[in-house]
Design a protein that fits this description.
This protein is mainly beta and about 190 residues long. The chain contains 1 helix and 14 strands. The protein has one domain: Methylamine Dehydrogenase, Chain H (7 Propeller), CATH 2.130.10.10. The strands form 4 sheets. The protein has a 4-stranded antiparallel sheet with strand order 4-5-6-7, with no helix packed on it. A 4-stranded antiparallel sheet has the order 8-9-10-11, with no helix packed on it.
């Protein structure tokens, strides 16, 4: 399957299954309120019966439920719509289906709760608009790419031990050593 953003405020789903069709077949095409900037699909871990499309659309992130298994697939059903404080250029859903990361014109990355619509966190670090965000396959990290020329990695659950990220709590000995006065070194003549 390929989710395709077309000009003129439309996006469409295409079947690219080899062996079934000799050429790509458009399953449906839907009109949008604004020109989409980014779209991504995700099959949720419920046996493949739930496919979501997340679309960055103006100042909104919209989530559609796709059902392409029926013989005459209907247009996608709008499941959720989240309004953000700036134009959004990119969005991606966590593989669990309960969280979305998105970024845009204000240089921030937002983590959204899909169930409540709340902004869980806003991540600062870029010095230009954010044009791409994606979760890692295991969902522990997400990456963001910006117009400032940087790609940054972020932890989905901050403080979690993962790869090179190790949470080290200061011990009593370390904190008292920091507070002690520096050693006296005799001056040489």
């Amino acid at each position: 399957m390929l989710l395709f953003i077309k000009s003129f405020f439309r996006f469409s789903l295409w079947d690219l299954t080899p062996g079934v069709n000799s050429e790509a077949r458009m399953i449906w095409s839907a009109a949008l309120d604004d020109c989409p900037m980014d779209a991504a699909t995700l099959t949720l871990p419920d046996g493949g019966n739930s496919v979501k499309a997340v679309v960055a659309l103006g100042k909104n992130v919209v989530v559609y439920d796709l059902d392409f298994r029926a013989s005459s697939a209907a247009a996608p059903e709008l499941v959720a719509k989240f309004e953000l404080p700036c134009p959004v250029f990119t969005a991606h859903m966590h593989h669990s289906g309960d969280m979305i990361v998105c970024g845009g014109e204000d240089n921030l990355i937002y983590r959204l709760d899909v169930n409540t619509g709340d902004i869980l966190e806003s991540c600062r670090g870029h010095f230009g608009p954010v044009h791409c965000v994606r979760f890692s396959p295991d969902g522990h990290l997400f990456a963001s790419g910006s117009e400032d020329g940087t790609v940054r990695l972020w932890q989905t659950n901050v403080g979690e031990n993962y790869g090179l990220w190790k949470l080290v709590e200061p011990t009593t000995t370390e904190s008292s050593a920091v507070q002690s006065s520096p050693p006296v070194v005799p001056a040489s003549v």
